[in-house]
Design brief:
This protein has 26 helices and 22 strands. It is α/β, with parallel strands linked by helices.
Length: 740
Amino acid sequence: MIDLREVSIAYDGTAVIDGMSFSIAPGEIVALVGRNGCGKSTLGRVICAVQLVDGGAVVVDGHDPSVSELERLRVRELVGYVRQDPVDQIVSSLVFDEVAFGPRNLGIDEDEVALRVDEALELSLLHGFGQRVTVELSGGEQQRLALAGVLAMRPRYLVLDEPTSQLDPSSRELMRGLFAMLSHERGMGIVLITHDADEIALADRTFACDGSDVQEGSPVEAEPGARLERRVSAGLAGDVVVSLDGVRFSHGGRTILDAVDLELRAGELAILAGASGAGKSTLSSLCAGLLEPDAGMVRVCGRAVAPGMVGVAFQQPEAQFFHDTVFDEVAFAPRNAGLGEREVHVLVERSIEAVGLSSDVLNRSPFELSGGQARRVAIASVIALDAPVYIFDEPSAALDAEGRSFIHGIACKLAGDGRAVLVVTHDLPEWERLADRVLVLEGGTLHSEGLEGVEAHAADSEGPSTLRRGPVRSQGFMGPFGGYVAGAPLSHIDARVKITLLIFATLGVFTAAAPREWCFWIVALAVAMRGARLGVRDVLRGMRPVAIILMFTLAANLVSCDGGGAMPLAGPIGLDFAGGMRGAAAVARILLLVGFSLAVSISTTATQISDAVVRLLRPFARLGMPVAALSTVLSLALRFIPLVSEELGRIRLAQRARGARFDEGGLIMRIRIWSSVLTPLMVGLFRRSDRLAEAMSARCYDASSTGRLPAPRPLGRHDRVLLAGSLTFMAAAIAASLIG
C-alpha cells in the first residue's frame, strides 16, 4: 500500500501541494487528473521518492524515504517512474543496455538481466529491438522503451506521467491494455497522471487534484472545459498557398517520403495523422523549408519555400526563448523578416492580443512566466511572423482542457483569417471535428480521408505485427563522437579491447617517424575503419570541429617570422619548408587519431565505454582511486555528447523557422543570431541534466555509484586473441620507432 499522509510541498516559498492525503493499493489503477500546474507531476515524483516532501509523509509498503537513503532506495525499487518525455530518461545508446540499466543497478547477475530485458521488451511491444540504437527510434518507440526500462526492474507500483502522449491511437489502445494487464493480472498498483479520457475511464478510482487537496470524482468533474465547434467549409475555394510536387526524402538509407503531392489552401485547417515514426514531422519541416527534399519541389505562394516563410510551432515552443523581454521575444521573427520597428510593434501587440494576454506582459522576462503564459507567448512569437501558413506539431499534447481549448481557438482563428493551417497530431477525435481535411501519412505516401479511414490505417500500420518487428540495422554515420552505429564488426568486440588498442595506437602515432612506420599506422587505421564501416568522408566530417586548429597548426609551422625562412616573402617573413613538414606531420597524426577515435566511438555505446573504463581501472580502486564515482561522471559526460548535438539541432531548426539566418551577414550579425541558439541551448542542457540525473536515480543508479563495482567479467576467446595479436604488432611498431 502507498499512503500519502498530509503531504505538503513548496517551491520558492509557495505551496504547490498543501496537506494531501490518499492511498493506492496493489492491483488497482488510480488516475490523477486536473489542470496543468496543479501539482499532479509533483505528486508522482514524491510517490516514487524522486523528490522528498516538505511536510507529511509518503509511506510505501512500510518504507518512508525521508528516514534514510537506504529507505529511499528501497522505495525506488518498489515504485517505477516513467515521465512524459522519454528523451529525458534514456541513458544508453543501445536498447538492450537501456532496459538493462535498472536491473544492473540492483546488482542482478547478467543471465537474469538478459531474461528481464527480453520480458520487458516483449511487454512493451518492442520484441527484437535489443540491438537498435535508442536515438533512431521514433517518439512512440522511445516512450515504450522508457516503460520497458522500468518494467525490467519488476516494481510493485508504477507512476506513469502522461505515458501515451506521443503514441498514435492504435498504440495507445495497446498500451492501455498493457496497463490493465499489469494491474489486474500481475497485481501492480498503477498511478496514471493523465488528461486522456480513455485512460481516465480505465482507472478504478479517479482523483481530481487542485493543488491543495485531492478529491475522488468523475472524469467530467476533473476535466471541465467548453467544447469548441467550427463550421467546416463545404468546399476549399481559397488559393493554394503550399504545394508539394513529387517530394521525396530519405535519411540514413531509409526512404521516409516517396513522391508526396500536397496542396494546402488559404482558410483551410487540415490535420496530419499517421503512425509513430511515419515522417509527419519530416513532412512539416519540408513544408517550412527547414529541410531540402531529395527530389520534387516545395512552393509557398508560388515561390520556392525558404525558412521564415511558414510559421512553425514545434512541441514545447517555449523552449526556444532567449530574449530578456517578452516584447523582444515576440519581435524576433518580424525583425528577421526586415520589417521596420513601427510594423514590428503592431505585429507584436496584435500577436499578444491574439493569444489572450494583455500588453502588460511585454516588459516581463519570458523566463519568469507561468507555464500557461509561457506557452501563449511562444505561440505569439510564431504567429508574429504574419505568414500565409502555420504548422502546429502536436500542439495539445499533455495539455488540460483549458490549454487544449486555447490551442483549438488559435488554429481556428488563423484559418478563419484566411491562413492555411496544418496540425500534426495523434489526437484525431479531438481535432477531426475542427478540420476541413484529414491527411494520413503511411508508408511514405499521403492519403486524404475521413476519421474512419484514418483509424483503419492506424490499425493496419500499428498492429502487433508492426510493433513487434525485428531489429533494423542502422545505416550511415550518425555524427562524430557519441553516435553509435550497430551491426559493424567492431561493435561485437569488447570495449576494453578497443580502448586498450586505442591507447596503444595513440602512443604509436605520436612516435611514428620513418615512412614504414607511417604506413603501418595508416594500414591499421584502414582496417579499423573497415571494421567500423567508417568511410573517409566520415573521418573528414569528424574533422570539421578542429579544422581551424589544424589549418593554424600547419600555417604556424610553415611561416617563419624570424628571418630564417628558406623562401623570403616580405622582410623577416618567409616560408620554412622544414617547419611545414613538421606541421604536416602534426596534422597527419591528428587525422589518424580522429580516425581511430571515430572507429571506437561509433562501434561502442556510451554505456559500454563507461563500463570498460571502470573495469580497466578496477585494480586502482584498491589504492583508493574513486573508480565508481568516476564511472558516474563518465556516464553522464558520454550521454551528453549526443544530447548537446540533438538540443542544438532542435533549437537551431526552431529559430530558422522564425527567420533566423545563421550563414548570412557580417560577424556582429552572425554573433547576434547565434545567441538565439546558445541561450536556450544552455537552459535546455541544464534542464536535461537535472532530469537525466533524476531519471538515473529513479532507477537506483545511486545504489551502484556509491562504491559497488561491476562484477568481474573475463574477456571472450576471440577478444583475447584479437588483443594479443594486435598488441604484438603495435608493440613491435612502437619499439621500432623508439629504437630508430
